[in-house]
Design a protein that fits this description.
Layout (H helix, E strand, L loop, with lengths): L1 H23 L7 E2 L2 E2 L7 H4 L2 H13 L1 H22 L2 H25 L6 H23 L11 H4 L1 E3 L7 E3 H19 L1 H7 L13
Helix pairs in contact: 1-3, 1-4, 3-4, 3-5, 4-5, 5-6, 6-8
Length: about 210
């Protein structure tokens, strides 16, 4: 009964994060750092989305990988449903695929490292999962190779200085991906604070199996 209540709470939190991220991704970050116009490469959704990894890791710590996968699948259903209503089909496919793959990889990495230093499993799980999420989302959304998923976005494919400041040029979506992953790394480190604070509150309820 306790497990059911906690799982429902985790599902509700994951749903909130997915909904919030889908909303906040519409708003660019209007700021400039080291000559880089962040509005060109970042939205506020980049800051809220990594919280999904914290929710997944807390579920995994407390109830194991099977429960964590259920929470991830619930978020996947919500995320894909919202994306098809608010985005182009190609973006919806990319978003859902990247979310599912990244979160499941996070669960696998976390479960393998869970008996090591307390910070290693959540940090490496979220960073490795975020890397896969970023590569999949931006490639499926904008790379010319994946045109079979939907029409290409000309602006995303235009060559431009990397991050708007470097001499080398690349399609704009490359800079978007770099900026997105940089934020995910920073937020992933910050998320160790609430994870560490909650460790003694949300203790494992049962031995976790590597499944």
């Amino acid at each position: 009964m306790l497990k059911t209540r906690y799982t429902i709470a985790y599902v509700a939190l994951m749903t909130l994060v997915v909904v919030a991220s889908n909303f906040l991704v519409q708003f660019p970050l209007n700021a400039e750092v080291a000559g880089i116009n962040l509005a060109d490469i970042l939205t506020w959704g980049a800051f809220s989305y990594p919280v999904a990894f914290l929710i997944t890791d807390l579920t995994n710590r407390q109830f194991g990988p099977q429960a964590a996968r259920k929470v991830v699948l619930a978020g996947f259903v919500v995320g894909v449903s919202l994306s098809f209503f608010t985005s182009a089909p190609r973006i919806a496919i990319a978003s859902g695929s990247a979310y599912l793959a990244g979160q499941l990889l996070d669960i696998a990495v976390f479960n393998r490292l869970r008996r090591q230093a307390w910070w290693r499993a959540p940090l490496l799980g979220s960073l490795i999962g975020s890397a896969l999420d970023t590569v999949m989302f931006f490639s499926l959304s904008f790379a010319a190779f994946f045109v079979f998923l939907g029409p290409n976005e000309p602006f995303a494919l235009e060559a431009a200085p990397i991050l708007g400041v470097f001499a080398g040029e690349a399609p704009r979506w490359i800079s978007w991906a770099i900026g997105d992953f940089a934020v995910k790394m920073i937020v992933g480190l910050v998320m160790l604070l609430p994870y560490g604070a909650l460790m003694n509150v949300l203790r494992p309820m049962q031995p976790a199996r590597a499944n």
